[in-house]
Amino acid sequence: MSRLFILFSVCLLVSCSGVYKQVSPSIKSKTVESLSKVTPERKKELEASIKNLPASQREGMAFLIAYMSKADLDTLPAELLTSNVKLAYKARETFPWAKEVPLPVFYNEVLPYASMDETREDWRPAFYDMLYPLVKDLTDIHQAVDTINKSLRGLVKVEYNTKRKKPNQSPSESMKISMASCSGLSILLTDAFRAAGIPSRVAGTPLWVSKEGNHNWSEVYIDGQWYFTEYYPDALNKGWFLDRAGKADKSNPIHWIYATSYKHDGLAFPMVWARRDSTVGGVDVTDRYIELYQKQLVEKAKGIAVTIRMYKAEQCTLDSDGRVAETITIKNAKGDTVASGKTAGPTDDMNLYLTVSLPEPGEYTIEYTTAKGLRKDVVEIKEPKEIRLYFN
């Protein structure tokens, strides 16, 4: 063996040990495997992005590279990766709840620069600067989640709208036009949570078992458990879609409930706008939603479920813009209020509608305001039903 070859081998070993210092063997092995698929120039660039970080942050960068899609592996700017990693670790060092997040969860649900196949961009600096003043004095992750949930909509000025340009918009794309789909809103919310060091991922189904379309929302990880929430928040693990998610058909994957995962272990997260794309990792979380729904059923009184929708006029029932958001009050025969709520308006998710539970069969009065003033409709309710009201 020539002295030149030996010298080259020693230099290569020293170089690699410097790149992967503080990186666990399992992540190092997967990273080396991923980098074997790119050009020598790209490999050198990505290895430099690992080596140039503080030793405590190198494993995080290596993890991102290890499980990166081939498209991102080939094209994602190293500067974006570096900025993303540095700010993710800054959040971990800054916020008390972030310090407690287990490293595997931090790597997979805080550190990632994207949730699905949205346009890649450096969103983390803007979100960090936006949210830091709101959560900097908080000590509890529940408070932080609640604060972000309630504040984000007013900060980014984005509303649900079917006229958005595409379903999988990045944060800046949604904020530019002030509208997004449920998927775009979920990306916004998940990125906001991650910017504050809160583990988050997108969840959803490609098709409700009722065949009423798809839906996406967000999940957050608190004290070892995953909870669901969304851009228009209710309490954690409370939401209009739980009754649908809880009826998922386990025998058919198209009706499963999925959560995204940066680390791809074989199951793909289904994206209805890119049905053949299997590059986004997924986790089957159907059983958890079925269990949550069953618990909700036990907690609820044995009432009668009534769905209420309001439209501008009878001819507007197929148009999102034809929906009217109006407060509904339902009273029993004695005049006591037994239920109330607000119908879905034109900017609400197309899957959203008002559902109330009435205590028993009987005659009820539905009160609401129309263009002509207060209206009272007397309705006989004997079983679950849908009621359509009109504003004109």
UniProtKB/TrEMBL annotation:
Annotated signal peptide: 1-21
Domain of life: Bacteria
InterPro entries: Papain-like_cys_pep_sf (IPR038765), Transglutaminase-like (IPR002931)
Keywords: Signal
Signal recorded as keyword: yes
Pfam families (alphabetical): Transglut_core
Domain Transglutaminase-like: 139-227
Protein name listed in UniProt: Transglutaminase-like domain-containing protein
Record organism: Macellibacteroides fermentans
